[in-house]
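Listing S7. Sequence submitted for prediction.
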Amino acid sequence: YDARNTRDEAELRRRSLVDEAGSFIGTYRARGGEDLRAVSRLYFGTPEQWRQIMLDNAITESILEEGQEIRVYRHEEEQR
């Protein structure tokens, strides 16, 4: 990992702790070549939530374009 990835991951963890009560976790800006599985892994620790992220953003492609913004939500079944 480079410093930017490390910083991004720390910010995501901080946001998830601050936003425990709500369903919106944050916005992710994609880097070239990333896909929704990578976003799911970053936010939820598993690539398995990629379909839900796709539905939440009303997109039809799992491969993301550089700079594309993705909103990430926590759904009730994911809250513990």
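Caption to Listing S7: primary sequence and predicted structure tokens for the chain studied. Strands lie at 24-29, 69-73. The chain has a mean pLDDT of 82.
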